[in-house]
């Protein structure tokens, strides 16, 4: 039995401010299951990816949306899913999410995922791009010199700026947040770029991981005045969790406070309370618990509630961080609605709040804060 | 509908063991609103300080106490509040808190806040002083020499000791808890004091931030045997959150374990579980979640519950950390009562506790632990 | 009134995968009370060990199991307990736990606790050994040379391997997790062993704390392919809490990923979310919140719930970490059942789960994961 508040939160049109594309084509069962964990390792012997919150949520919540009556087990689900045309599956789940604007990180998984024009054809929502800084550098490195890289980045960001909603940095993965918070000098950038180019010539992968270059990208992004998203907190096994605690960013946040760019801390779990503090004290800091919502499934209500403690309600956003299976695009929204409504309802029941208070906060987090930070889409 | 336990917790006379004075005079709306956030920055564009737990709690909980029927919006509240005489507003809210003893940190905001004698006239509770160590040093530095500073501090603390309930350190703000845990040598203190004095002569602010001097103050305080309060965990943007984790104090806590002084960790959020561990294993360690209660408002029940996990119930205290608006002196107590009663009720309902168990714990945390640590006021 | 799920979780036969022996003999009241805290310090003045979650749980939950009608206070309980024969008291509480297999860390408290054969006589459960690595080294050091220590350890572990269920390391206590993650060289081990032996000859205690030797033990343990348990998170005042955060193990976990040994992170509080992340991304990582369950008593439901967020349900285990009073062997299980059932019930009520989903997860965590990792007992 739903409360009035739950029904109203159910109806909200959301902005998903950090998401990736849905799968471009039909996928085999193994690939689908690999996309339901952050691990890139084989599963532990004798275990199934469905023995997890995300696995349970898919089996319990998605069949109804997809009209798959009677599907109750992972095997049933995998079988039934294979029979659905990709476009139909994707459209149904994206529509059911109630998201009417997607800000899509295009920096990863190009061949596996729908590109933005294709994604636009399977969703009623509008689609805007978030460009990934490291991916940009890794493209530019092949066409410029050590001396020219910095200007090439600045020029490229300036060109892209009118067409994107913001930038994304994965410095948490590539280095960690324990970096020198100051703007690197031009000569340091040239030296680092030279080192990087020589390594690539010697056969190294073009993956940028030099902290001087990663910092250069961050400052170049802030110079555009557009919002800058940073992956924070947990992710795949590449990452050193304790070095992705957003509290470590504090000196850098002070450095870029006057840049005009808002800093969007993504995911943050299990450091979402630290993120909430930063969002409380710094006007240019925002955050979400994106990735953690899908991955904690039925337990996500507590994570969502914890994200609504210290931060002003004007500084928290919704994202799904869905990547690949469109089940994730749907479930992120569904779980956010449920957890947010339950949390707000408890404050009505026990904390002296009115239903209007609650609904105002749901609207801020689900939509209005993102609109204020990212503006309207360019026509 | 209240439970018996809620009614009994409602009636408890509390000791607020860490608080600041209420506002001395009428304040304009901007100043009032600035005092409802820990940030010293302008608000993010398009946001209101009332879109926060504290803002919501004020609008939802204070009008009734103040007899402001029909006040439902921030604008209404600000307008109605301006018409109330300061002494009446303050007296009403302080009385409604049910606090009958206030331990007041006098080290900050002297011109803005009521002094202790004035505060005594607007509360039925008794008022005792907590003297701030850094403020003492910053006064003494103008009247002594580098060689004399250490003895001047010791002499001043000895003089004050009979008149104060304890000391307060803000080393978390001025340096962080990653300091050398040993007692500084006399010659190190003289060197550091000389450096500080020369800096002041050269025009620097007299703000003490040298870790040698901050440590000297801490050890001098512990030598008096009086309780020593340390700000821990979140605060304003000056602070590096991860360096204010009380777990970092462990070596220093071992150093001062035999001093006879109890160490009172204030606020601690989001490191209140770390504080609970320290309070569990070290007999001289106590803590509260003071500041976090007002700032998490309707969500404070979970923070309060988390503060009642590992620590013995004899080692947790109540404080509001209210500073300025007397709404904070009231709300801290009100929210503590609600969150504590709800938490304890859940242990009666689900955990095998009796109502007597619950009430005994509420009395320990709300009053008796503070009485045991700080003793009775001197007559 | 219990739900169906609560009744079914109540009936589960558990494997307690990390526990110590129960008290061997009658104990005086002081010793009993000392065993109800992780602190080795005297209690703070004016406080009682029963003013804690564990103390409350014992008084509220154990009299009924022991047939001590009318016992309601600590004094009553201590008096009544003294009259019960040790074997009967122990048998009653161990039986009431519903544990049918105990994996017992034998590395600490030999004279105080029952040895494994004796423990086997007072429990219907089977009893298997977890051998403590540091204790093994501290025995071997007296009978070998600096050059011979490494091989002596390897030989000893090889001899023991067929008879034990796994190994336990307390490197968290002896050094912290901020150790060099690589395998130490043979010559480094010889140098460190020589240093240790000379220190012992000079009268130092034979306690091994050199990080080179502690790492050697860890790698030797992983070379056996048996599960390796690591104390993580909170413990007694010896430990630096922030240095026992399992997130700090990430590089070492990568080093031993291919060893075939599973890494079992014990307790982890307040870093159980970090542990859950590691268990999510690394196939060889498992964890529990053992010690934290008894010590948070009526509040343990939230800790248990938080341990069931990010980690797959196949990677979380049950343990009591009981040491000494058999009340702890019972309460650990009792509190785990209650907290787990409540948590799972909330996901049925609010999260779309079926009762079958819930029961399957309870079985995984309470029993099946341990069976899969540790195998069946050798006959």
In short:
3 copies of one chain form a homotrimer. In chain A, 48% of the residues lie in helices and 10% in strands.
SSE topology sketch:
The structure is a homotrimer of 379-residue chains.
Chain A: H1 4-11, E1 14-19, H2 29-34, H3 53-65, H4 74-82, H5 86-97, E2 99-105, H6 116-121, E3 126-132, H7 133-140, H8 149-160, E4 166-169, H9 171-174, H10 186-201, H11 211-223, E5 228-232, H12 250-255, E6 263-267, H13 272-281, E7 285-287, H14 290-296, H15 300-306, H16 326-351, H17 355-374
Parallel strand pairs in A: 1-2, 2-3, 3-4, 4-5, 5-6, 6-7
Pfam family, one (chains A, B, C): Amidohydro_2
Organism (chains A, B, C): Aeromicrobium phragmitis
Protein name (chains A, B, C): Amidohydrolase
* Main sheet makeup of chain A: 7 strands, parallel
Low-confidence stretches of chain A: none
Looking at CATH, which topology of chain A would you report?
TIM Barrel
Biggest interface pair, counts: A-B, 39 and 38 residues
Instruction: Report how far apart the termini of chain A are.
Output: 42 Å
Overall form of chain A:
globular
Helix percent band of chain A: 40-55%
Oligomer: homotrimer
The percent range for strand residues of chain A is 5-15%
Radius of gyration of chain A: 21 Å
CATH architecture of chain A: Alpha-Beta Barrel
Helix/strand order of chain A = HEHHHHEHEHHEHHHEHEHEHHHH
What's the overall average pLDDT of chain A, rounded?
A: 96
Supply the number of helical segments of chain A: 17
């Amino acid at each position: 039995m739903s409360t009035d508040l739950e029904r109203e939160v159910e109806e909200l049109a959301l902005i998903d401010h950090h998401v990736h594309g849905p799968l471009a084509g039909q996928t085999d069962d193994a690939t689908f299951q690999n996309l339901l964990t952050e691990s890139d390792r084989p599963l532990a012997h004798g275990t199934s990816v469905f023995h997890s919150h995300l696995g349970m949520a898919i089996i319990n919540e998605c069949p109804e949306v997809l009209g798959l009556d009677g599907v109750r087990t992972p095997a049933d689900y995998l079988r039934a899913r294979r029979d659905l045309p990709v476009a139909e599956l994707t459209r149904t789940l994206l529509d059911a999410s109630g998201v009417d604007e997607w800000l899509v990180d295009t920096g990863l998984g190009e061949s596996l995922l729908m590109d933005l024009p294709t994604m636009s054809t399977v969703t009623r929502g509008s689609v805007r791009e978030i460009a990934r800084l490291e991916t940009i550098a890794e493209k530019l490195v092949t066409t410029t010199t050590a001396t020219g890289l910095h200007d090439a980045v600045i020029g490229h960001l300036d060109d892209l700026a009118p067409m994107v909603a913001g930038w994304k940095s994965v410095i948490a993965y590539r280095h960690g947040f324990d970096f020198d918070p100051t703007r690197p000098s031009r000569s340091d950038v040239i030296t680092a770029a030279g080192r990087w180019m020589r390594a690539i010539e010697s056969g190294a992968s073009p993956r940028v991981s030099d902290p001087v270059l990663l910092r250069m990208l961050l400052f170049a992004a802030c110079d555009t005045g557009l919002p800058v998203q940073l992956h924070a907190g947990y992710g795949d096994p590449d990452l050193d969790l304790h070095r992705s605690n957003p509290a470590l960013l504090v000196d850098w946040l002070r450095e870029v406070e006057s840049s005009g760019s808002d800093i969007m801390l993504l995911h943050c779990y299990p450091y979402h309370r630290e993120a909430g503090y930063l969002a409380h004290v710094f006007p240019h800091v925002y955050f979400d618990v994106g990735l953690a919502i899908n991955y904690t499934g039925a337990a996500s209500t507590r994570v969502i509630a914890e994200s609504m403690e210290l931060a002003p309600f004007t500084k928290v956003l919704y994202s799904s961080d869905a990547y690949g299976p469109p089940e994730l695009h749907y479930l992120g929204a569904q779980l956010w609605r449920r957890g947010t409504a339950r949390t707000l309802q408890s404050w009505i029941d026990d904390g002296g709040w009115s239903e209007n208070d609650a609904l105002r906060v749901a609207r801020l987090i689900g939509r209005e804060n993102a609109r204020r930070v990212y503006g309207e889409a360019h026509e």
